[in-house]
Amino acid sequence: MTTFLTEAETAALVDDNLAFDAAREAFLAAATGSTFPVAIGSSSTPDTRFTLKSGSAGELVGVKIGSFWPGNVEVPRHSSTIVLLDPPPDG
């Protein structure tokens, strides 16, 4: 099953406390070396960026693809897509 959530839908699901807790866990994981490597690239313009990050937490694994295009003035400069994979149960 595939589920797509808009920015407005995710904003309604994530409050400040949940976001703070998630950020804290991410910083702690980075500080202890329990994160995966990050692939960083750019387009033909050196100030652009896109990243590919992978990770796992509990039963979930996933990837995040992020982009930053500083020259965009009419559309968002930063965007990301997160894909969470729910592995099948052991057995």
What does this protein look like?
This protein is of the alpha+beta class. Helices cover 25% and strands 33% of the residues. The chain has helices at residues 7-13, 16-31, and strands spanning 38-41, 49-57, 60-68, 78-85. It has a 4-stranded antiparallel beta sheet with strand order 1-2-3-4, with no helix packed on it. A hairpin with a 7-residue loop joins strand 1 and strand 2 (49-57). The mean pLDDT is 83.
Record field, number of beta strands: 4
What is the share of helical residues?
25-40%
Enumerate how many helices there are, as a single number: 2
- Provide the residue-averaged pLDDT: 83
What brief labels describe this structure?
91 residues; 4-stranded antiparallel beta sheet; 2 domains; alpha+beta; 2 helices
Structural topology:
Elements lengths: L6 H7 L2 H16 L6 E4 L7 E9 L2 E9 L9 E8 L6
Short account of what is shown:
With 91 residues, the protein is of the alpha+beta class. The chain is 25% helix and 33% strand. The longest helix has 16 residues, at 16-31.
